[in-house]
């Protein structure tokens, strides 16, 4: 075995630009005689080493911080063991055909796979012995998938192998039609609603026409770059590029111009000018974002030797992170400068061998523990070592039962598609909620034993037209671009409604709105009531003025609101990732507990600051995770709400809850209701429930949707916990995409430069990671939307150059429709059987093969 990688060591310097500055940022790659990388030196002089055996299998990977991954193989070069930096081990086993048949994780959990004689996967068996089965036709295409509960999904194909129809577990059928070149022409759902697609002579998509005949059009220049996006109102969003293909200006639907300036030598983005608001970016020696400045606002960032973000700082806060040897976050120190005083809040976290967080010690010393089985499914939660809730789950690991410490019990039932069908609460307080859906999964009605029946109606593209309850009858109208309109009669027909060409709502139901040049709401007036809003340079709401007085808001370097202050008092917020974990006022401290990796609340614990006595209240939420009631320690209703369609709430609090300090500002997932303004703070933005819209433009731009102020087509099946991009909370595949959909989820898309299009997949992946890193640097909110694993993977970090692999859980996919585009999509979708495969690989051919066969 040759672990020294001796032999010729040619050096390649890879980068963008020319001149001394360019070479100062260069990353050096060392190759052996066969072209395998064995050493990398990065711009900050940190190094990475890769050791291989005689067959060039990677056996040890040493990172700049000294940690390493080790790998062992069998005689057929199959990976047998992956030994992680903390010495925990993942083991694999194979059959005599080199097919993976067993995976054993560090906790000893075992996953099994079985195959037929043709190598098709027949069974997947999880650690609890639950089985998923697959069936195939003579061509080896999957025709049926049977889950552990017996639900079966069926697929049918055209003679050329393209998917013709998909039938879900409920029997609803979706169909697809293609042209002679295998391109998707139309998609028809179970209600007969069709979406049609058109292409130009170069094969690029140029139109999408929805079920109402409304068209979204795409325009390109001679080099194939998107130059204009024309929405359903015929308004245009325009793009301009420099000679090397970098975006230098975009003009949004509301006329706002955003310009980008790059360093001539390194190609790094230096300035973003958004309608006259200039943001300047500075980088460290490794090319990572070190400072972001606009006006009087400044944020700075520092990294540890492994390239992980270690410190984030602005004028109001400094947040520091510490990690263990495998990269799990073990300690956080939040320092605040609020209300004229310093505050320090320290978190400590514990993990199991699989990287699941199993315990946290909160800044005030309170401890939460999560009881976990298998690969991360929760079956209980402890507060200071006392169980406050336990869960029962079915064979698909969905929650079916919940037992609370106040002796209430909740049961949940699902329909064949996995949608919530019924919720039952029993004990001292009882209730029942049942849900009814149409064939495409739209919620038609809710029957609630406490609140009565609610019925919903939609237009052909899924927008909410009516919500009728025993107390409210609401109707809604939209223009073709999905802007909510002020109309007393429901309609979404283009000939009957005006159009908001700039997507800015100026008036609705007697309320008038004004905006600044960046699309931020600055004034809201209804009769004599006027609310004025002020914004900082990062488009964060800094002050609200009403007749009752002014309220100021303060944020950390991640854009999390850490404080608010007005004549009524001061509130400090302490965060756990992207959820508010506790809030402190002069009178009370309130802890919020959420389901793991979720914005769905479980409980709140409240204590008066002059008393050690705690009071616990338990959340009872609907199918979307919206709180409907809270029960107290005696099992009685402490708080309840009645909602209008877009989230306006009328709440009732019991006298006992008032005495205990129990209250609930949580609304739709990720939203916190502010009494002083009527707005809902929604992590990166503020949402107005009176108009069902955000009051500022999306920080991630068009990646969050074509209409950057819209919340969602409806509030009955969509959520947006971060205020960045809507999603359906209960998809059916591992990535959240309904199995009946041919659409795959594109997290981001990059263009493969002409000079490397003939290169390898690794060349393309490396460049795509680089482009994505540059986008995240220019727009940190995008990084938060993509997640820390993606951000860490694509940044050069001390590893300097860019990885030639896809981020964890994702895949860089070469577009089959335009092979010069490479898209970041969820790995489960890339591997999934079903309709999505014909979008990804028409005629079983991907974009990479097309690109290299041109």
TrEMBL record:
Residues 127-265, 406-698 form the Teneurin-like YD-shell domain. InterPro entries: Rhs_assc_core, RHS_repeat, T6SS_VgrG/RHS, TEN-like_YD-shell, YD. Residues 836-846 have a biased composition (Polar residues). Keywords: Repeat. Residues 791-815, 831-854 are annotated as: Disordered. Pfam families: Colicin-DNase, RHS_repeat, TEN_YD-shell. This is Cell wall-associated polypeptide CWBP200. It comes from Iodobacter fluviatilis. The gene is wapA_1.
């Amino acid at each position: 075995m040759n672990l020294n990688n001796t032999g010729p060591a040619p050096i390649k310097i890879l980068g963008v630009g020319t001149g001394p500055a360019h070479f100062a940022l260069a990353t050096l790659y060392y190759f052996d005689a066969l072209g395998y990388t064995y050493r990398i030196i990065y711009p900050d002089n940190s190094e990475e080493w890769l050791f291989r055996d005689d067959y060039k299998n990677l056996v040890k990977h040493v990172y700049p911080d000294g940690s390493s991954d080790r790998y062992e193989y069998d005689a057929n070069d199959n990976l047998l063991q992956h030994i992680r930096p903390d010495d925990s081990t993942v083991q694999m086993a194979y059959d005599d055909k080199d097919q993976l048949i067993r995976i054993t994780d560090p906790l000893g959990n075992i996953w099994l796979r079985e195959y037929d004689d043709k190598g098709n996967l027949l069974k997947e068996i999880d650690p609890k012995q639950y089985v998923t089965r697959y069936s195939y036709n003579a061509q080896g295409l999957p025709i049926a998938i049977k889950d552990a509960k017996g639900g079966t999904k069926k697929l049918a194909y055209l003679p050329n192998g393209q998917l013709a129809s998909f039938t879900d577990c409920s029997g609803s059928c979706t169909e697809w039609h293609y042209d002679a070149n295998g391109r998707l022409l139309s998609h028809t759902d179970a209600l007969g609603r069709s979406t049609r697609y058109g292409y130009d002579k170069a094969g690029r998509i140029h139109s999408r026409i929805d079920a109402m005949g409304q068209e979204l059009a795409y325009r390109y220049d001679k080099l194939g770059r998107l130059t204009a996006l024309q929405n359903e109102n015929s308004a245009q969003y325009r793009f301009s590029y420099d000679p090397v293909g970098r975006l230098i200006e975009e003009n949004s639907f509301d006329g706002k111009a955003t310009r980008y300036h790059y360093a001539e030598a390194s190609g790094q983005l230096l300035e973003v000018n958004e309608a006259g608001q200039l943001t300047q970016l500075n980088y460290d020696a490794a090319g990572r974002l070190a400072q972001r400045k606009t006006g009087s606002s400044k944020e700075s960032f520092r990294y540890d030797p492994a390239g992980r973000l270690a410190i984030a700082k602005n004028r109001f806060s400094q947040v520091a992170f510490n990690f263990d040897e495998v990269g799990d976050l073990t300690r956080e120190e939040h320092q605040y400068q609020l209300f004229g005083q310093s505050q320090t809040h320290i978190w400590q976290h514990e993990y199991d061998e699989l990287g699941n967080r199993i315990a946290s010690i909160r800044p005030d010393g309170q401890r939460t523990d999560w009881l976990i089985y298998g690969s991360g499914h929760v079956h209980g939660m402890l507060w200071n070592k006392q169980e406050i809730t336990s869960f029962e789950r079915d064979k698909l690991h969905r929650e079916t039962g919940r037992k609370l410490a106040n002796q209430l019990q909740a049961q949940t039932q699902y329909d064949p598609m996995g949608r919530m069908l019924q919720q039952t609460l029993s004990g001292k307080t009882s209730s029942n909620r049942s849900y009814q859906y149409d064939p495409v999964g739209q919620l038609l009605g809710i029957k609630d034993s406490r609140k009565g029946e609610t019925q919903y109606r939609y237009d052909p593209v899924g927008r909410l037209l009516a919500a009728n309850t025993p107390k409210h009858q609401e109707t809604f109208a939209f223009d073709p671009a999905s802007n909510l309109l002020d109309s007393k009669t429901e309609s979404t027909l283009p000939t009957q409604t005006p159009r908001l060409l700039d997507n800015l709502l100026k008036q609705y139901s007697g309320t008038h709105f004004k905006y600044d040049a960046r699309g931020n709401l600055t004034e809201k007036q209804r009769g004599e009531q006027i609310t004025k809003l002020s914004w900082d340079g990062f488009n964060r709401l800094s002050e609200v003025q009403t007749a009752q007085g002014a309220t100021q808001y303060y944020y950390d370097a991640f854009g999390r609101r850490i404080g608010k202050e007005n004549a009524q008092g001061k509130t400090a917020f302490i965060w756990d990732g992207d959820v508010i974990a506790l809030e402190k006022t002069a009178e009370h401290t309130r802890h919020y507990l959420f389901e793991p990796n979720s914005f769905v609340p479980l409980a709140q614990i409240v204590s008066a600051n002059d008393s050690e006595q705690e009071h616990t209240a338990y959340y009872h939420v609907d199918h979307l995770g919206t709180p409907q009631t809270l029960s107290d320690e005696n099992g009685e209703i402490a708080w309840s709400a009645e909602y209008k369609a877009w989230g306006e709430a009328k709440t009732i609090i019991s006298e006992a809850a008032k005495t205990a300090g129990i209250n609930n500002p949580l609304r739709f997932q990720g939203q916190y209701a502010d009494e002083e303004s009527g707005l809902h703070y929604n992590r990166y933005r503020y949402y107005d429930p009176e108009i069902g819209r955000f009051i500022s433009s999306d920080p991630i731009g068009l990646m969050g949707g074509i209409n950057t102020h819209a919340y969602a087509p409806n509030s009955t099946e969509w959520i947006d916990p971060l205020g960045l991009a809507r999603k359906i909370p209960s998809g059916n595949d591992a990535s959240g995409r309904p199995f009946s959909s041919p659409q795959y989820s594109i997290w981001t898309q990059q263009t493969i430069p002409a000079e490397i299009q003939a290169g390898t997949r690794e060349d393309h992946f490396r460049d795509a990671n680089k482009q994505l890193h540059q986008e995240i640097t220019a727009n940190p909110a995008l990084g938060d939307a993509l997640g820390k694993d993606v951000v860490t993977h694509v940044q050069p970090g001390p590893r300097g150059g860019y990885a030639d692999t896809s981020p964890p859980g994702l895949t860089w996919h070469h577009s089959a429709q335009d092979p010069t585009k490479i898209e970041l999509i969820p790995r489960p979708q890339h591997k999934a059987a079903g309709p999505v495969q014909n979008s990804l690989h028409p005629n079983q051919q991907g974009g990479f093969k097309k690109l290299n066969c041109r």
